[in-house]
Every structure is written in C-alpha cells, then in structure tokens.
Specification:
The complex is a heterotrimer of chains A (244), B (846) and C (234). Chain A is mainly beta and 244 residues long. Chain A is 13% helix and 45% strand. Classes of the chains: A mainly beta (244), B alpha+beta (846), C alpha/beta (234). Chains in contact: A-B, B-C.
C-alpha cells in the first residue's frame, strides 16, 4: 500500500513539485538506502570548550524513518566502547539506549531528556533521530533561486515548535535547517561538502550552531558507504551489550 | 523610679555579687530553653534547607520507604503526560575521613531539568559529559569541598565502596550557592547508575524527583501519580520530609522543655530566696521609708521593679548564653537525628527565631517577677515601728509554717489521687507537678528539722564551729530553705535522669544478652545503623561456606511508614532467630507468634512500637510496600530496642516478596563449637575483604557500640545534670554570702574572743556542708518519686518501653561527694570574705 | 605590760580622719585604768588597738612583751586569745548559745577538753553569780545578767588583760554599779590588768588611774591611789 502510494506520489511530484510535502517526500526518497556505514568525527568549536574531539563508527539498517542505528565511540580512550542504539519508529519518537561498558549496563534515554544536549555537543539527542516526513506538517514559504524554503511543524512531541528547511532544487538535498521553540531560534544546522555516494547525495560535513550558547559543533563523515550487508541482529539491546 | 535610684541601687551595688548570682538562675533557665530549642530548630532548618537545596525545582517526590524501588517505576512515572520531568535519585552519606560527604546519585542526562548545577569555569557541569558517564569513578564536588581538601579537576579521591576501596576522579566543580551549599557544601554528585553499583543498591532508586507540567496542579499530579503507582509508594512534596523529621525531633523538644522548666523553677527559688533575704535585711530601711511616708504599694512596686530589672538582665544574658549553647549542641542533635531519619543535614548557621527568643525573654522576666511577689508583699507589710526597733527578725512565723505544711499535705494527697487516675495524660502530668510542689512546700520545715537533728552531730565534730554552723541554719530558715529547695529539685532531677539511664541500661543489657547473641556481625559500616550500603544476598552463601561458621542469619532493616510514623521494619529468618535468640513475648503466645510470623502471616511488634503508635495485639497493620500494601496482624509483642521509633519484625520471605528486595544490611553469624572468633573473622576478611566493603564486628564490638549509642542519648541528660549541679552551687554561694553578711557581727565576736581564721572558715564550710547534706538528703528522697514519673513519662511519651523501676544507688552515692565538694567549693569565697573584713566594723555592724 | 610608742591611727574615708595622734602610753601589770573622753576622742579606737582588733597607722604597740605590728592576723588572734578578754557595751553574746555555751566558747576555740571546759565555765558563772542561769539563752536574761555572762566569757581564760568598752553603757544605774563592783572584785582576786573605756564619771573615778583623751591626744593622766583603796574596800 505505502509503496504504491510512494510511486504515485513520485509521479505527482514531477507534475507539481510545488507541494511542500511532495518536496520533502522526494528528499526522503532520494536518501533512501538499506544500510549505511560511516566513521564520524565530532568536534566542538565553542569558546573555551574543553570537550575532546570524538570519533565513532556508525551503522544503520532499514528504511529512513524506520531504521535502527548503532553508534560506537572509538576515540578518546576514556569513552571507547560506549555505544548508542537508536531505534526509530515511523509513528513516534525513537527509543534510545546508551551502553556504558565501565559499569556494564545500558541506560534508557527518556523521552523527556531528548532535548538535552548530546554529551556536551551542540546536538541534542532528538537531533540524532530520523523522523519520517509523515510526522510533520509542511508549508512552502518561498521559492528562492536555487532552493525552496519550507516550514515544518512537528505533529508529535518535540522540543521544537517549528523549523525552517532549505532544500536544493537540483538534487533535493537539505542544505540548512533552523529549529525554533517558543523563545526563538535554538539551533541551526548547515549541511556542506556534498558528495555522491552510491547514487545518494550526502553531506560530508554537518555543522550545528547552538544560538543561545554561541557554540558550534561539526560532524565529519569518513568512509561513507551505503547498502553494505548488515544483519538485524546487530541492532538489538543484546548487540549493544555485546559490544563491537 | 527615683526611689529605685536612691534606695535600690546603693543596695544592689553593695551586694553586686549576690545580684549577679541571683540572676544566674534565670540566665541558666532561659539559656537552656533558648539553647535547646534553637539547636533543635537550627537542625530542623538545616534539614529543610538541605532538602530544599537538593530538591531544586522538584515539585513531588516518589518514594517507597528505605528499600527504594525498581527502575521500571521511573518509566512508568515518565510515561504520565502530566509529568514534565522525572529524575531518579540515590542519596548516601559516606565518611571520607575528612568528615561526611553527602553523595547524590542522579541521572546526569535528565537531572538538569530539575536541579541547576552552577558550575565553575565554563557553563558546562563537567569538561566532557561523555567522559563523565563513561568513567564510573566520576564525581562532581562543590567548590567549598574542593578548596577544603585541595582538589582540582582530575584530582583523585579515595572512597570505600561496596566494591572495596576505589579511587574517584573529580570531573566537575560546582560553584557555591544553591545545590552546592546544601549539607554545608560537603556534597558530591555521582552518576546514579554508578552510585547503584558503588552502594550495592542493585537496580533500584531511592526516589524519583519530578516536576509537573505547568497546567497541572500539585493536587492533580499527586492524585494521578498515586493512582498510577498504587499503595506502597508515597507521593509527597519535598517539604513533607521535613515535617516527618520535625516529628522525630519532638522528643528532644519535650526533654528540653522539662529541663528548662526545672532550671527556671530552680532559678525562681534563688530569686525568691534573694528577695526574701533582702526584705529581711532591709527591714529597717523599709521601716524608715514607710515612716517617711512611702505607701505600701510604693514599697511593693520598688521590689517588683527591682526583680523586673534583675529578670530582664538575667533573661537577656540567658538568651545570649543559650545562643552560645545552641552552637555547641546543634551538631550533636543533628548527628542523632540524621541517624534516625537517614537524611543528612548540617547545621552550620543558627536559626534564630525571634518569637522563641522573645518568648524566652518574657518567660525569664515573668518567672523573676513571680518569684518576687511574695517577698514584695512581705516588704509592703513591714510595720514601720517594729522595723525601726533594733534586733534581728528572721524566724519563720509558726503560723506560716503550719499553713505551708497543710498545703503540702493537700498537694501530696492530690498527687496521690492523680496517680490513681493517671491513665489520663493531663491528670498524670498534674500529679507530677503536684508532687514537686509538695516537696517544695515541705522543704522549709524539713530543713529546720534536719538542721536541728544535725546540730549535735556537727557539735560533736567541732564544738564551736559545728554548733554555730547548725545554729545559723536554724536561725535563718528563709535563706537556707530556698537554697535547699533548689538543691533538692536539681538533685531529684539528677536522680530521676540517672535512674532512667540505669534502668534503661539494665533492660538494654537484658535485651542484648538475649537478642544480640551472634558471635560475629558482618556489616557494611563500622556501626549497625548505617543503611547507605547493602550487601547482595549471595554473600550469605559465601559466608556460610567459611570454615567455623555454623549459621548465617540475613537481616534487612528498612525504615517504613506505618501508622503515620517512621518505623523500623526488620526482615529476618524468623525460624532461625527463634532457635538462636528467642525474645520472650511481652504479649502473645510464644510458639504461635513465631510460627505465624515465620509463615509470613503476621508480624512481631516491638513494645515501643505498640506504645508509641498505639497498636495492640491482633491488630491488622497496613504496611505499604511496592508489591502492594501488606495487611498483617500483630502476632506478638516483644521487647526490642532496635529502634527508638519502634520496630516490626517480619519474615525475610514476606519482605522479599513485597519489596522485591533481597539485599542484606547485616549478616549475623553463629560459629561452630570450638571455632575461634578471631580466626573466623580473619578468614572472612581474607575471602571477601578485598572486593567487598565489609566489616566484621565481634559480639563485644556490637555491644560496646549499642552501649555507646545509649551513652550518647544520655549525653544530653548529662548536660542537664551539669546545669542542675551548677544551679545548686550558685544557690549555696548565694545562701552563704547572705549568711556571712547576716552573721558578720557574730563571726567578729568569735574572732574577738580568740577564734582563729581557720576556725571561722570551718564554721562557714560546715554550714555549706550542712546545706549540701540537707539538700542531698531531700533531693535523693524526692528523686525516688521523680524517678517514678520519669520512667512513666519515658514509657508513655518518649521511648515507649517499660523499663522497670531501679533506684540509681551508685549515682546517689556518687552524688554525695560531688555535692559536698561543690558545697565546699561554693563556701570558699564566702569563707574568705568572712575572715577578711575589718573586725572593728564587724563588731559595730548591725 | 602595755606599751604604746608614738601610736597614730587614721581612718581613710572621703577625708582622712585622725583618731589617735602620736600617743605614748605605759600601763603596768595589775593596773586598773579608766579611759574617758568625749565622743570621737579616740578612746574606743585606743581600746581596739590594744586589743589587737585593729592595727595602728603608725607607731608600736607592745603587749606583754609582744610587738603587735610584727604579728600576722593569726598571730594577733593568738595574742588575743591568750592574753586578752573583751567586754562589749552590747554584750555581743551569741544569741543561739546558752550562758554556759557562750562562756565555753573561747575555751572550745583553744581546743580544751570538754570536761575541763565545762568545769571552768561553771566555775566562772558561779563567780559572776549566775549559777541559776546556766542553760538560758541570752534573750531570756536581763541586761545585767547578759553582761555578767559576757564578763564570765572574757575571764574564761584568766587573761592577764581585760578590756571593757562601756561595760555599763547599756545598763541602768543600779545594775551598772553592780557590774562595776564585780569588775573591781575580779580585778582584786585575779590580779588582771583592766582597761575600761567609759563615759560614766562614777565608773572612771572608781579606777585608780584615769586617762583623759581629747581629739586623739592624752590630755590628762590621773593617779588616784587612795581613792581606789577606799572603793575596793567598800
């Protein structure tokens, strides 16, 4: 049913690309992959930040919005082995568990805590989720030269009340996101250094700016691969406990 | 006013020392009152403050008694839409060798929506939150604590945990203020899951702190959470913990109230005494005043105003003294209460309550005024003609004495009647007061009789000095009987408290002999009451395997709320306890009560639980537990001293089912015949000491500990004893000073006809000794009565255990030299002043 | 027996009062001397100094070979208890003690054995003719009786010196005369040195020697040998 719908939507989008939901669905379709693997480098560039640069290995399986991701820290030595399992759900917020090898137990990250910052970076836990377009309402705000500017409003629980997205017209990639809450702009995310990998345009650098703290964090993707063979079994709580 | 300056001031200046001594009683009375209550209130305030500061913006707390509850409860609470944020907490106090450190285990991810960590340096709590979480040894300390102990970021700090000795790393420093100032700044934050591990808590939380959504009221939130969680969980605002704590502190308020009333009562006597003497001494002066046209009411007002001034001065001084005393006592009371309620607090500053201080001031002044009423009336009724005639007038009117004796008889009869109807609390306390009044009314007559009886005895020791000393007492009953009454009251208090202590010791040591008979105790701390750490049940298996161990009893004690009060629930293997340490029932059938308790169908209640919380045999108690409310009848009542608030004994199985908790506080070990205590102890330490935080206490260690704990409890009463004795000394000094003044001429004659100075001193000393002796005799006698009341009060309202009457003979014997020595000490000054003065003046003295 | 050499006594107060000024006086053993003078002339002060109740500001007092100024307070007391008996105007009996006990007092203070004390006290009370009043308290005695008890007390140790300050001052004329007679009698029988401070001329004149004081100085020192003999015989 949904596949049929997607096909129909695809056809429709070509005809009338002005519809915001169709734009976003096209964005999501073009990002579609069965699995993903990369090595990330996370750097906080705040003033006087003492947060060490971290590296991790990330694997993801499943379709966008319904995927599972496993993140393992590798550097620095103090955090090596710490893992994060993210199970996304198409209809609600994700489940997230943190694995702490030092005390030998996992810790569920509560929904209420998703707005907290991801280990001192400028990301929040929520920013790590994949949320299906169906979880948002969209409005087209402007048709700029190379990009569309859209407004997204989450239907389900979120720390944000709305956001602006800029989508490139030529390849349907999101290049910038601004997220707002009642008080105003919270975070801005810039997507840069796009590269075509296995037919998917992927930003190799993501930079998030926390407006209130005036601090930036960059995440760089290395060894990016799509559709490599992976097993569902490696994305369970047991797998999280097992370690890499 | 002019009269005051013209008449009173010169007199007061001349007798400055005596005025100061007089006010000393008020100073002490007001001081004790202010001191004890301020200390109590400061501790309470510190407790509330710690709760407040630790609570942050927490609106409600979910608890389930001391054992805590499983982690799944957190998800349940967080799932409630009305809850904005919920964060689990574990609290523990750890002794670091640099004082106690309050450790707060929180979920570092979510907790900051409830608590603000004002952090040093950058706006971040910690340099790297991921490192903090990834490394279990991470700790955030306050700046105060860091500076005190020379700690910096990444400094190492050793602590003894359930995993043995571990070195922790400081990974964050909080700025002073707010949370960081709770518990006097001796506070550290640890990740809650690390804390679970280090404190052996398993996958449990002590409580959940939560905040509601803005559109949800406290009442709505509380109701929803209660409905969600069911019985066994408590949902209360943080402040309610303070209220429970204050309820516990009530005992100390009651005890301190009794002491202050006693001190003030004694102070009142000293004032009455001084004024009565002053009126006698100033008779001729009063006579002249009256002859010159002063009205009776002017004379009366003069004396009342004098006492008002003395009372105000003494009360003000008493308030200052009390504040100083509170400073010293706050820590002491705090320590005891922390143990009872398990929440750490530190009273660093004093909480001065203006109402309390004002009240104390008023109390002192009123007491002082009240004490002066009778002497002032006596002064007003002085007949000017008779007063101007020469000669002494000291003797008590026979009519006055007779009236007093009748009144005493009436009071004695009334207090005897009160005893019959003593079930009623008001009547009982009235009887208590009446018995004291009887003694006070009888004091003058008894003093006179005893002085007469003593005369030949003293004369036998030293013919002149002894006779004169006795005569001085007989001639000046007014100046003596006040002091004797004060001394009598304070000694009665000492005897009552001493007897209470002794009786408690007796029944305590009985209990220890029966109940505390295991050979070894394996505990998580040096003492038996610390419940911050717990053992896994599996350790019991390991202990049983140690050669020389015959039997291991697993004991889990937790504080739960039953009948609205914090009660100690002791879970243990009832069958094994019945076999090894069978407590005889106070009520109930012995075989039946153990059997039913063992099957988990009933509980055994301690005697003090029954008394303090109004329980009775067969009553079905509702004990809230996470697994649902337990409804168990009281199968038997036993004498158990485990806890001041009362204890309930439950079978370990029933406990584990209801609380989902199989941890252990204490293992009680019985050794096989012939096994050597020290060797087994060493074997245990060798086998588990490295990877476990554990202490192995011998039976003697535990008994010593319990005894020490009781000593501590009575430490407070020793303070009261000291106060009482001090007041007595002041009374004697006062009486002697007056006696010396009265007898200056007599003592002068004695010297003129050849009395050596040493002989003069002897007569003063003997007078002091005689006062001391009479006070002692009456005090020991009255003490026997007061002890009865003390034991009753303790049974009814304080401890709830019937400890049996046992007169403290040793204390009484020890008091004799103390009081006679004190009397001698008190006599030194007056004796010297007696031999120093000019002979010529003394002989002309009138 | 009694030597005063350049004795002065001043009282410190708001202003300095000189009670005695450079007094020289010599009294032989066995003399009976009266000291007269108006109020404030220093006669009581003189008596107090001789009795060792007070110390002079200047000068030297010698009693039976002992220089008082060289003695400690207890030394002074010893001189008093061994050598001096006091008789006061207001008797200064201890109100709680019986006649017998009052008389025994100085003997007890010397630590005599009880039996000997009792004997001596009774003997003395007999001497002052109070055998019937042994067990009475001072309040139960008349003025004259009280003074006789006081005299008995002063004599209890057979002191070589007897000092009396207005012994008849608080008594009516008749009783006064009786007491005076008693004193003469005792002087004669016991041979003690007697000093009497008095206002009463008849008392003064009954003594063989009278010293008159005015403003702290001796203005007259009168010997009256013959008269003394007559009175004593009377």
């Amino acid at each position: 049913m949904s596949k049929l719908l997607a096909a129909w939507l695809l056809a429709a989008s070509l005809a009338a690309a002005q519809d915001p939901r169709q734009i976003m669905q096209e964005v999501q379709r073009r990002q579609q992959s069965q699995s993903q693997h990369y090595e990330g480098t996370l750097e906080v560039i705040g003033h006087g930040s003492r947060i060490a640069t971290k590296r991790w290995v990330f694997d993801r399986i499943g379709a966008f919005g319904n995927s599972k991701g496993m993140l393992r820290f590798t550097v620095p030595a103090e955090v090596k082995g710490v893992g994060l399992l993210i199970v996304n759900h198409p209809d609600r917020a994700s489940d997230q568990w943190l694995w702490r090898p030092n005390i030998g137990r996992e810790q569920r990250i509560a929904l209420q805590d998703r707005s907290t910052r991801f280990f001192g970076t400028d990301f929040s836990f929520e920013d790590l989720e994949e949320r299906d377009v169906a979880q948002f309402d969209y409005k087209l705000l402007g048709d700029e030269k190379e990009t569309w500017k859209l407004q997204s409003t989450p239907r389900k629980s979120s720390q944000y009340t709305y956001g602006y997205l800029w989508v490139k017209k030529d390849n349907y990639t999101v290049v910038k996101v601004e997220s707002y809450n009642k008080k105003g702009l919270v975070r801005a995310i810039d997507y840069r250094d796009f590269e075509l990998a296995k037919g998917i345009w992927t930003a190799r650098t993501i930079e998030v700016t926390d407006v209130s703290r005036n601090s930036r964090t960059t995440l760089k993707y290395d060894k990016l691969e799509y559709n490599v063979p992976m097993k569902d079994d490696d994305f369970t709580l047991d797998a999280l406990r097992r370690g890499p | 006013m002019r009269l005051l300056r013209l008449i009173s001031w010169p007199y007061a200046r001349k007798h400055l020392l005596r005025w100061l001594l007089t006010t000393a009683g008020i100073v002490l009375g007001v001081g004790v009152f202010v001191g004890m209550h301020t200390a109590n209130q400061s501790v309470s305030a510190a407790f509330r403050e710690t709760i407040d500061k630790v609570a942050g913006t927490t609106q409600l707390q979910v608890t389930a008694g001391e054992p805590g509850f499983g982690e799944e409860v957190l998800e349940k609470v967080q799932s409630l839409p009305d809850v904005r944020a919920a964060s689990p907490v574990i609290e523990a106090t750890v002794s670091t060798g640099k004082g106690n450190l309050l450790i707060l285990g929180v979920d570092m991810l979510g907790d900051r929506s409830l608590r603000t960590y004002d952090l040093d340096g950058t706006d971040e709590a910690i340099d790297d939150p991921l490192v903090f979480l990834a490394q279990a040894d991470s700790l955030i300390v306050t700046k105060t604590f860091a500076e005190k102990n020379g700690l910096k970021i990444n400094s190492r700090m050793p602590m003894r945990t359930m995993q043995g000795d571990r070195v922790f790393t400081v990974r964050g420093i909080m700025k002073p203020g707010g949370l960081a100032s709770a518990f006097g700044g001796d506070l550290a934050i640890m990740d809650i899951y690390a804390a679970q591990m280090f404190f052996g808590r398993g996958r449990k939380f002590d409580r959940i702190d939560l905040a509601l959504r803005d559109d949800v009221t406290l009442a709505q939130g509380t109701a929803k959470l209660r409905a969600l969680l069911g019985p066994g969980y408590e949902v209360d605002p943080p402040s309610s913990r303070g209220e429970q704590f204050e309820q516990t502190a009530r005992i100390y308020s009651l005890a301190s109230n009794i002491t202050s009333v006693f001190a003030l009562f004694i102070g009142m006597f000293i004032i009455y005494n001084t004024f009565a003497i002053a009126v006698t001494q100033r008779r001729s002066e009063i006579g002249i005043l009256r002859a010159l046209g002063a009205t009776r009411s002017q004379v009366r007002t003069l004396f009342l105003v004098e006492s008002l001034i003395a009372g105000t001065f003494g009360s003000a001084l008493g308030v200052l003294f009390g504040i100083g005393m509170a400073q010293a006592m706050a820590g002491y009371i705090g320590g005891i209460l922390t143990d009872v309620y398990g929440v750490a607090q530190r009273a660093d500053g004093l909480d001065l309550n203006p109402v309390l201080l004002g009240g104390a001031l008023a109390m002192g002044i009123v007491t002082s005024l009240f004490a002066a009423v009778i002497p002032a009336r006596a002064a007003a009724s002085v007949d000017p003609v008779k007063a101007l005639q020469k000669g002494r007038n000291q003797a008590l009117g026979e009519g006055e004495s007779r009236m007093r004796r009748w009144a005493a008889l009436a009071c004695a009869a009334a207090s005897a009647v009160a005893l019959i109807f003593s079930r009623n609390t008001v009547i009982f306390y009235a009887g208590f007061v009446l018995s004291g009044i009887t003694a006070v009314l009888l004091a003058p007559s008894l003093t006179l009789w005893l002085s007469r009886a003593l005369r030949p005895v003293l004369a036998g020791i030293r013919p002149v000095e002894g006779t004169l000393a006795a005569d001085s007492l007989i001639q000046g009953p007014r100046r003596t009987s006040g002091t004797v009454a004060a001394l009598m009251l304070s000694l009665a208090l000492v005897i009552a408290l001493g007897g209470l202590a002794r009786s408690s010791y007796n029944s305590l040591s009985d209990w220890m002999r029966i109940a505390l008979n295991p050979d070894l105790f394996v505990t998580t701390a040096q003492n038996l009451t610390a419940r911050n750490f717990v053992f896994p049940a599996s350790l019991g298996v390991g202990l049983r395997a140690i050669p020389g161990v015959a039997e291991v009893q697993l004991v889990r004690s937790v504080r739960v709320t039953v009948k609205g009060g914090p009660v100690m629930l002791v879970a243990l293997d009832v069958a094994s306890v019945e076999r090894r340490a069978k407590l005889p029932p106070v009520e109930g059938d012995q075989a039946d009560m153990y059997r039913r308790t063992e099957r988990g169908e009933a509980v055994l209640a301690s005697e003090n639980f029954v008394r303090l919380h109004g329980g009775r045999l067969g009553e079905i108690l509702e004990i809230p537990a996470p697994g649902g409310t337990l409804r168990l009848p009281i199968a038997g009542v036993v004498r158990d001293f485990s806890d001041q608030q009362g204890s309930l004994l439950i079978s370990r199985d029933a406990y584990m089912r209801a609380w989902h908790d199989d941890t252990v506080n204490v293992f009680r070990l019985y050794l096989t015949r012939g096994a050597r205590e020290a060797e087994v102890r060493q074997r245990i330490l060798d086998a588990f000491g490295k990877q476990q935080r554990l202490f192995v206490l011998t039976n003697k260690d535990v008994r010593d500990y319990v005894t020490r704990l009781t000593d501590q409890w009575f430490g407070l009463t020793y303070v009261q004893i000291a106060v009482a004795v001090l007041v007595a000394i002041l009374g004697i000094v006062n009486a002697l000073t007056v006696s010396i003044t009265d007898r200056r001429r007599e003592l002068g004659v004695l010297q003129a006809v050849g009395g050596l100075r040493q002989q003069i001193r002897h007569t003063v000393w003997m007078e002091a000794a005689a006062i001391g002796f009479i006070g002692l005799a009456l005090g020991l006698l009255l003490g026997a009565v007061e002890l009865y009341y003390a034991i009753e009060i303790s049974r009814r309202d304080l401890v709830g255990i019937d400890i049996g009457y046992s007169y403290p003979v040793a204390t009484a014997l020890a008091l004799a030299p103390v009081i006679l020595g004190a009397a001698f000490l008190a006599a030194l000054g007056p004796a010297e002043s007696a031999v120093r003065g000019s002979l010529v003046e003394a002989l002309e003295y009138e | 027996m009694i030597h005063l050499r350049g004795v002065s006594k001043q009282f410190e107060g708001k202003s300095k009062v000189t009670a005695l000024e450079r007094l020289d006086l010599h009294i032989d053993r066995g003399e009976m001397v009266s000291i007269v003078g108006p109020s404030g002339s220093g006669k009581s002060t003189l008596l107090n100094l001789i009795g060792g109740l007070d110390r002079p500001t200047e000068g030297e007092i010698e009693i039976d070979g002992e220089i008082l100024s060289a003695l400690s307070d207890d030394g002074l007391t010893r001189v008093r208890r061994d050598k001096i008996g006091f008789i006061f105007q207001f008797f200064n009996l201890l109100p709680t003690l019986t006649s017998l006990e009052n008389v025994s007092l100085p003997l007890h203070l010397r630590g005599w054995p009880r039996k000997k004390i009792d004997e001596r006290a009774r003997e003395l009370l007999e001497l002052v003719q109070l055998t019937a009043r042994l067990e009475h308290l001072p309040d139960e005695l008349s003025g004259g009786e009280r003074q006789r008890v006081a005299i008995a007390r002063a004599l209890s140790i057979f002191p070589p010196i007897l000092l009396a300050d207005e012994p008849t001052g608080n008594l009516d004329t008749h009783t006064g005369a009786e007491i005076l007679k008693l004193m003469h009698d005792l002087h004669e029988r016991l041979g003690a040195t007697v000093l009497i401070v008095t206002h009463d001329h008849s008392v003064a004149e009954s003594c063989p020697r009278t010293i008159s004081l005015r403003d702290g100085r001796i203005v007259a020192d009168q010997h009256r040998q013959a008269l003394n003999q007559e009175v004593s015989r009377a």
